[in-house]
Each structure stands twice: as C-alpha cells, then as structure tokens.
Amino acid sequence: MRKLDLFKNTVVIFYAQFISLAAGILHFMILARVFSKSEYGSFSQMVTITTLSYVFFSLSLPNSVQYFLAKANTKLDQKKIISQILMLCTFLGIFSILTLYTFFPFIIDFLDNPLLEEVKIPILVIIGFQMISANFEFIFITLNKAKKVVYQKTIYATLKLLIGVVTYIFSWSFITFAYAFSILELLFGIFVIFVVRKEVGKIILIFDKLLIKEILIFSIPLMLSMLVGTINNEFGKLFISKNFGLEQVGEYTILSKELPINIVAVALTSVLLPEIARSIKRKDNITTINLWKKSVEISYMAVIWIIGILILMAPEVITFLYSDKYLNNISIFIVINIVLLMRITYFGMILRASGNTKAILICALIMLATNISLVYLLSPILGLIGITIALLLSTIIINFIQLFLSTKILECTLKQVFPWSKVFKITLVNLLIGLSLYFLKDLLYQVGVHYFLNIVIISLIWLTVYLSIYYKRFLLLRREMIIDDNNNL
C-alpha cells in the first residue's frame, strides 16, 4: 500500500502558512507605523466587520470541504461536492453583499465611526469574494496537492505585502488602502475559480438537493460555532469600542494580535483532519488517538520555546514590531502569548472529524458566555488586561470540555487522549531555560548590547539548548507520522 507522509505534507502547509503569516505581520507592522492609533482603530473595525460577515454568510461551507471530500468514494463524487459548494458560496457571496449594503447604516451607528461609510464598497467587495477564495486551500489539501496551496499563498502574501509597502511609501490614507486591498480580494477570487475549474474539470451547474441538504446539516452548526467563536475573539474590541475609544481599540488590537506562532498547529490540523475523519469512519480509534497525541506533541515542541522568548523579551519585541508607543500595556501582549499555548492544536478536531458539529456549537456558546461574563467582571477592576485574561480563562475551560467530549467519541479516558506527561516535561524544560536566560538578558544590557541584538542572542541560546535536549525525539516523531494512504481515489 502507498505510504502517506503526513509530516512532509505538514511541512509544505507550514511553509505556505509561514509565508502568508510572515507577510501579514510585516503588513501590520507597516500599517501600525503609517496609520495613527485612531486610523488603526478604524482598520480594526473594518477587519472585524469582514471577519464576522464572512463567518456568518459563508455558512462555514469552505470549512466543510475536507469532511465531505474525505468521505467521497469516487472522483465524480468529489467533483459533485466541489461544484455544489462553489455554487453555494457564489450565491451566498452575492446575498451577503446585498444584505450588508442594506444594513450598513446600522453597523456604522453601532460602532459610532462615520469613517466606515467611506470604505463601505471595499468592505462589501472583500466579503463577497472571500466566500469563493476561502475554498482553495481546503480543496487542494484534501486532494493531497499541498504544493498548489504554497504557490497560491505565496502570490497572495506577496501582493498583500506590496500593498502595505506602497501605502508606506506614498503615505496612503486608510480609505485608499482599503480600496487597493479590495481589488486584491476581487482578483484573487476570480483566480481561484479558474484554478479549481482546471483541476476538477467543468463545474456541474445543477443543484443536488440531497447533497446540499447533507452539506448544510453539517455546515450550519459549524458556521454558528465559528461565528460564536469569532464574536468571542472580537468581543474585546467591540467592548472597548463602546466603553473606551478608538485609540484604545487600536492599542488593544496591536498588542492582542496573535503572532503567527501556531502555524505548525494550523498546518497539522489541515493535514490531519481528513485522515482522522477517515480513521473515525473505519472506527479505528487507536490510530485516531495516536495521530492526535503525536500532532499535539509536535506542535507544542515547535511553539513553546518561541512563546517563551516572546514573553521574556516582551518590551523588546513590541518595540521592534510596532514601535515603543505601544509599551504602556505590555501585560496584554504577555497574556495573549499564553493564550497561544492553549491553542497548540484544534481541540475540536475529533468532534469535527466525526461530524459532531452541534457539539462544537454548544462548546462555542459556552465559551462566549464565559468570556462575556468574565469581561464584565474583570474589566472594571483590571482595565484592558482584564479583557485579555477573560479570553485566556474561557479558552482553558472550553479546551477541557472539548477534550472530555472527544473521549466519549473515542471511548477512552482524558489521560489516554492527551499527552499530559510529555507536555508537562516540555514546559518544565523551557521554564528552566527561560529563568536562566532572564539573568543573562540583564547582563547583556549592562555591557551595552542593543535591544535587537539581545533578542537574537537570547533566541539562539534558547534554541541551541532546547534542540540539544529534544532533537532526537523530534526526529522519532517525524518518522512515526508516515502512515498507510487509505485514500483510494
């Protein structure tokens, strides 16, 4: 039987995600320097509108691609699934544009920002075409053609970064930038349609009522859970918009922005989800648990040392990325990086791979309710940092709930489903390294080392010590991620 190298596919997707997210970070670094805090607050509100609208109007159809393509028995079945989802996304894209155009005045009143009226057209274009372009990655990963995703993300990231550079050079206003970015989304949406059509052949322009019904039964609860999850992530910004001001929105947006540390987790999730769906379909719980635990260990090993450096060198990293005007609330940056540790994997992967999207929705609702309650409880006492702590606590709670529900599906215990001891040992090793380097950091400053060089020295020492301990274990996990290819298409 042909072998499938999950680790190799993960590396390919990691590379694609790295290019995309690195360009995204540079993009935000540029905008943070070009825009004032209030302009960045308006940009943050535009991102919030497009994000929430996409999640709601897309009905999570792009996120359903992997589940249904993994279940397909023939290439014709795959073609039918892709055709139905693309047609639905096109229809929903048009519907979202018309609906948001009608209700846009209410959005402006709610956010109390008249400047958004000037970027209404770009926002509508971005939302409409994201419905289509979002399918690209999920389709080609599931078809084991991850290299196409690398090419796509490289092109998109380069153009996105180019827009940021041009904005910086010519000091474009927020409005001009928004129009330029919307043109990029429009062109990329058209590009995706042609590439997918070339891959799968002519799109079947006939609505299959039974298939559409099956897709919607799966996707709508997933959409609602993602919408609730997105509201949960954006709630802090919305709360600050209503209770603080645009400058505070801009400051919180910058400091609470999750750096692209968990791209290993994102890549592993993209590659593993179809395989776990297939193993659950075969009722092979042992394979499912082993794949899940190994992916968690690899992801945690890959990110914890980076997060440790970000926490240890928080003032220096903020100054380098965003400038020293954002140093007043370093604690927000530190807590958000601890949140990243709680997102080393997609804890709802087993639920989603088994089709239990209703359970995912319930978990998302619990998380949102917990987060909102904690925000109202902690923000009057702690201010902006209280909003970030609320996100951390609600994330921890929901992770445990999703793990517990996963044990019911896999018929195992909490101890069996998660590599607790390995995660604890990795954490302990990095804590000891971090404590040792804390004193070295101060010593380097005493001898006059520049802050950026300090970051480089601390990072290299941390990585060297860490690799000397865990490199062999990492190579072993890499070999164990080669499995039999059970996709016979």
Structural features, described:
The protein is mainly alpha-helical. The chain has one domain (3-484). Helix content is 82%, strand content 1%. It has helices spanning 6-34, 37-57, 65-71, 75-111, 120-133, 135-142, 146-169, 174-200, 209-243, 246-255, 263-281, 285-312, 314-322, 330-341, 349-353, 357-382, 384-410, 414-417, 420-446, 451-480; strands spanning 3-5, 482-484. A two-stranded antiparallel sheet has the order 1-2. The mean pLDDT is 81.
Residues in β-strands, percent: under 5%
Rg: 23 Å
**Order of strands in the sheet with the most strands?**
1-2
Beta strands, count: 2
Q: Terminal Cα separation, in Å?
A: 13 Å
Structural class: mainly alpha
Reading the helices and strands in chain order gives EHHHHHHHHHHHHHHHHHHHHE
Sheet with the most strands?
A: 2 strands, antiparallel
What portion of residues is helical?
over 70%
| Net shape | globular
User: What is the count of helical runs?
Assistant: 20
The average pLDDT value, as a whole number, equals 81
Domains counted in the coordinates: how many? Answer: 1
Q: Which consecutive residue ranges, at least 5 long each, have pLDDT under 50?
A: none
Task: Give the key terms.
single chain, 489 residues, 2 strands, mainly alpha
Topology (elements, then pairings):
Blueprint: E1 3-5, H1 6-34, H2 37-57, H3 65-71, H4 75-111, H5 120-133, H6 135-142, H7 146-169, H8 174-200, H9 209-243, H10 246-255, H11 263-281, H12 285-312, H13 314-322, H14 330-341, H15 349-353, H16 357-382, H17 384-410, H18 414-417, H19 420-446, H20 451-480, E2 482-484
Antiparallel strand pairs: 1-2
